[in-house]
Write a structure and sequence with these properties.
Layout lengths: L7 H5 L23 H27 L5 E8 L5 H7 L9 E5 L5 H4 L5 H5 L7 E5 L4 H8 L5 H20 L2 E9 L2 H13 L10 H5 L3 H14 L7 E5 L3 H19 L10 H7 L5
Parallel strand pairs: 1-3, 1-4, 2-3, 4-5
């Protein structure tokens, strides 16, 4: 982590070069405005700003603006991808947000290039798109489970970099978040699902099986950060053992990104005085 950071993006950005995820504290809360209560209060306050910035981005698109934002959420099961969608993205107006959860490819999807289904879900101009899992699944899972040759999953890194570079060139800002949790925290959350009748529907026994591959996934994530975090589409490693911090941090990443985009309400070609006259009584 960088000393004396200027922003959440500074402190959470993945370090360049080889990455050792064991060196990232999953329960840390860098730059949080306080402990849980105060940070949650700030989350709601900043949510209003996030909504305003989102509305301006959407408004721009109504008169030809081409910009959009893509939020990519990756992480182990229970890391909180759905929680971010609910508690952060849920603060935005739904008419300017698109959310896509990528699961195991269907037979139709598997018959195409791995980016085929991704391209179909990209956000339109003015939209904040959210990927709950993403194109990176098609490197991580095949690598861990030895489903494709190493040469192929390594080649996919290059394809993803070219794909994201093209997105940025055409006006989509890419914000990639690795929701980083500990092995112990995942166990606690899986047990909590079993203990709560209202959450058992979320439980997938396969998640227990996947825990046996924890070290392999950590190595795969580290390699992903090393090979796919260019200046134009960097990865952010978000400590996610504390849900309240995870949500606040992702919100701040979006707010900082949108502030840099500096969206503005467009000025439509309206004769305001004439239109006001038309609205005088009896109309």
């Amino acid at each position: 982590m960088k000393a004396d950071p200027k922003s959440v993006r500074d402190v959470l950005r993945a370090a360049p070069g080889a990455v050792n995820l064991a060196g990232y504290e999953t329960a840390s809360t860098p730059l949080a405005p306080g402990k849980k209560k105060r940070t949650l209060q700030n989350l709601i306050k900043e949510g209003s700003l996030l909504g305003d910035l989102q509305e301006m981005l959407y408004a721009e698109s109504t008169l030809g603006g081409q910009r959009s934002v893509l939020l990519v959420l990756q992480g182990m099961d229970t890391s909180g991808k759905g929680g971010v969608v609910k508690h952060v993205v849920g603060l935005c107006s739904p008419n300017a947000v698109s959310v896509k959860a990528f699961k195991k490819p269907t037979p139709e999807e598997a018959a195409h290039h791995f980016l085929w289904r991704i391209r179909k879900a990209l956000p339109r101009s003015g939209i904040i798109g959210v990927f709950d899992r993403s194109h990176y699944e098609d490197v991580l899972v095949p690598r861990v489970h030895d489903l494709i040759p190493e040469a192929e999953w390594r080649r996919r890194y290059e394809e993803i970099n070219a794909f994201e570079a093209a997105l940025v060139e055409h006006g989509t800002t890419v914000v990639k978040c690795l929701l980083h949790i500990s092995y112990g925290t995942q166990r606690e959350r899986l047990l909590a699902r079993l203990d709560d009748p209202t959450k058992r529907w979320k439980f997938n026994e396969g998640d227990i099986t996947e825990r046996a591959y924890w070290a392999d996934y950590q190595a795969a994530y580290a390699d992903m950060l090393k090979h796919c975090s260019p200046e134009h589409a960097p990865w952010y490693v978000v400590p996610s053992d504390r849900k309240w911090y995870r949500n606040w941090a992702v919100e701040q990443l979006l707010v900082e990104t949108l502030r840099d985009l500096d969206p503005r309400y467009p000025e439509p070609a309206l004769d305001v005085d004439r239109l006001r006259r038309r609205l005088q009584p009896p109309f």
